[in-house]
Design brief:
Elements lengths: L2 E6 L1 E2 L23 E3 L46 E3 L52 E8 L14 E11 L2 E4 L7 E7 L6 E10 L4 E5 L23 E6 L8 E14 L6 E7 L11 E3 L5 E11 L2 E9 H14 L10 E5 L3 H6 L8 E6 L14 E5 L2 E2 L5 E3 L5 E3 L1 H5 L6 E8 L2 E8 L19 E3 L2 E5 L2 H7 L1 H4 L1 H9 L10 E6 L14 E6 L2 E2 L3 H10 L5 E6 L4 E5 H14 L43 E3 L1
Parallel strand pairs: 1-4
Antiparallel strand pairs: 1-15, 2-6, 4-15, 5-6, 5-8, 6-7, 7-10, 8-9, 9-10, 11-12, 11-14, 12-13, 13-16, 14-15, 15-16, 17-18, 17-32, 18-19, 19-20, 19-23, 21-22, 23-24, 25-26, 26-27, 27-28, 28-29, 28-30, 30-31
């Protein structure tokens, strides 16, 4: 059975992207690879995409390990839920790196064939007395033109496409929408209800992990007579909820109604985090992304952003609660930019077994065992493997990795971590060798060895005599398709942890054929490990090493499996300009590599293990009793 997580942005860009995200209840390391479908925006241009299909009928599946974050960077559970976005743009999740699931191209809509993404059984409810409510006028339609980088040809962009979604006014000249609605934006416009004028909007902040974006509109006439929405409290189960937005099926505002079905830590398909989410049964369709969800008092209780698609389930939509929205806004106000949700960076094991607790000298039915600590996390210098965490800021942690949440409810332990801001300090109560103690741990966003999203407008790249080097990223894997990447590189991408901040897996993505590189033309997607005998830390380090090799006769590149490629330095240098001209490439390197190289690790600091080679063992993957915090 194929399952799909769809985003609610409606787009004509046809793309299927892997979504890794773990089920909060299972908190295991299994990660399903799911396709994201945009449900919130509608696009008018078609762009090519790579589609990977993995399902029970004749599809192939693979396993990927990843040491944790967080995404998202906690790990995904074996019961991972697939999510689709409401805006048609695809995105990636990061919680739990193990994946074994089906990819389904469910994603984008094309206007030419008028494909319908939503289930025809879903009925849009007449708003009744709510139809003329004043707060409906605060909901606007978003028109975005996207121009995504071409990760396979990193010196250029892909063909642009357009999509539509929803947003709403929050006051002070600002609007909220989903991050995936304005991903890789080159132009954003918004239009109010009952108005024919589109106004240019500016993206002030984009929170990929929480899938929220902050917009501003400078034109004063846009705000005339506008009343911003008021945020409400976290709803209770079975409370009525009304979703408002501009989904496909028409040009005017749409209203659907339902109830709150569940509130728990949820995997965000676009981001890399497991954050609090509200599950509702109101219909959420392409174009709803970024639109508000209201309670009966007309208060905004969250932002519609993704749905769950499955042959065995219907009407499962997700709303970002106001607690997550407030965290995003407070983060932006504190720092003048969005810094992200922090993580603890530890792999935890549940302590349900009484004998295990007794062996660890844990007297009560509580606590989780620290199995592994991420090398780049602040906890690495504070906690030790074998510690038992029994409290977080004086909140007791149960043996299943849960903490109290409202009346007669419990929620995943990582919920408490998500309430913190980057740089905050948490007090952990731990049992170490039978002794109770309290320690202070700083919380910061996770360092990804293979990022799910690339900051900036252009991926880094370096071209040496036709050899095209670039850092490995999830977007690159999606573009190249997993078959061409190879199992060994995929294993590193999904299983390994960064050993230090700034570490990257640098790959030779392709060779631009020329006389100077005869014999190497078929090389592609291979990790380069050393240059002239020096271990490569990242793409900037490689560029620095090449620039420093002015006295060497040969340029020697060492790859995986002891494969070696050698170029004569002077010949390679002389051929570079003609290669660039012949392939229409403006520069031999990306703009970020023109800056002086700064080695944050230090040339003399030794690494006790190969870079990018810190895999999680099989025992840490796919077991329900393990979870990343």
């Amino acid at each position: 059975m194929a399952v799909t997580v769809a985003s609610c942005c409606f787009s004509a860009l046809s793309s299927t992207v892997k979504s890794r995200y773990s089920l909060a209840a299972a908190a295991s390391q299994h990660r399903f690879s799911t396709s994201r479908t945009s449900i919130g925006s509608i696009s008018s241009k078609h762009s090519h995409s790579r589609t990977s299909s993995k399902s029970d009928n004749g599809s192939r599946s693979h396993r990927e390990k990843e040491a944790v974050p967080q995404k998202k960077t906690p790990r995904r559970s074996s019961n991972e839920r697939p999510c689709s976005y409401a805006d048609g743009n695809s995105s990636k999740g990061n919680v739990g790196r193990f994946q074994s699931s089906a990819f389904k191209s469910f994603g984008t809509q094309r206007k030419d064939n008028k494909e319908i993404l939503f289930d025809m059984k879903e009925q849009q409810v007449q708003p009744g007395n709510l139809q003329e409510a004043a707060f409906f006028n605060a909901v606007v339609k978003v028109y975005c033109t996207h121009t995504a980088p071409d990760y396979s040809l990193p010196w250029q962009k892909q063909r642009q496409f357009t999509s539509t979604g929803s947003a709403f006014m929050i006051g002070d000249g600002k609007l909220l929408t989903n991050a995936h609605c304005v991903e890789h934006d080159t132009q954003v416009k918004v239009k109010r209800r009952g108005d024919d004028t589109k106004y240019v909007a500016k993206v002030l902040a984009r929170g990929v992990d929480c899938d929220i974006a902050l917009l501003s509109v400078e034109r004063k006439e846009f705000w005339e007579g506008a009343e911003p929405l008021n945020f409400g409290h976290l709803p209770r189960l079975q409370e009525a909820v009304t979703v408002v937005g501009y989904p496909l099926g028409g040009d005017t505002i749409s209203v659907t109604k339902g109830v709150v079905s569940r509130i728990e830590v949820t995997s965000y398909a676009h981001g890399s985090s497991d954050l609090l989410g509200i599950q509702i049964d109101a219909a959420i369709n392409p174009g709803n992304s970024g639109g508000p969800a209201f309670n009966d008092q007309g208060e905004c209780i969250g932002v519609a952003f993704q749905v769950y698609r499955s042959e065995e389930a219907e009407n499962i939509g997700y709303v970002i609660p106001t607690t997550v929205v407030s965290h995003f806004l407070n983060d932006y106000e504190r720092n003048g930019k969005y810094t992200g949700f922090p993580c603890l960076g530890v792999l935890l094991q549940k302590l349900e077994n009484p004998a295990l607790r007794a062996c660890l000298k844990v007297q009560s039915n509580e606590g989780v065992l620290v199995r592994r600590i991420e090398p780049t996390s602040d906890a690495h210098s504070v906690l030790k493997e074998g510690d038992v965490i029994v409290s977080f800021d004086d909140v007791r942690v149960g043996c299943e990795g849960t903490v109290p949440f409202r009346t007669n409810e419990r929620i995943a332990f990582r919920y408490l971590i998500s309430q913190k801001f980057a740089g905050d300090v948490a007090e952990l109560g731990i049992i170490r060798a039978g002794n109770f103690m309290k320690v202070q741990v700083a919380l910061n966003p996770r360092v990804h060895l293979v990022p799910y999203h690339i900051d900036g407008d252009q991926p880094s790249y370096l071209i040496i005599a036709g050899f095209v080097f670039t850092p490995l990223s999830e977007p690159l894997i999606d573009e190249e398709c997993e078959d061409s990447i190879g199992l060994k590189l995929l294993a590193k991408a999904h299983y390994s942890l960064a050993k230090f901040k700034g570490e990257q897996i640098v790959v030779l993505s392709q060779v631009l054929a020329n006389e100077v590189n005869i014999g190497y033309e078929d090389m592609s997607n291979q990790q380069v490990l050393k240059f002239n005998g020096t271990r490569i830390k990242n793409i900037g380090h490689l560029a620095h090493l090449v620039d420093s090799a002015c006295k060497d006769k040969y340029l020697v590149f060492e790859f995986e499996d002891n494969y070696v490629a050698v170029l004569e330095r002077e010949t390679a240098s002389a051929a570079s300009s003609s290669i660039l001209k012949g392939y229409g490439i403006p520069s031999e390197r990306s703009s970020d590599l023109l800056e002086p190289y700064v080695d944050s690790l230090g040339d003399n600091q030794a690494i006790d293990q190969d870079f990018g080679d810190s895999p999680v063992s099989n025992l840490q993957i796919g077991i329900d009793s393990l979870l990343w915090a």
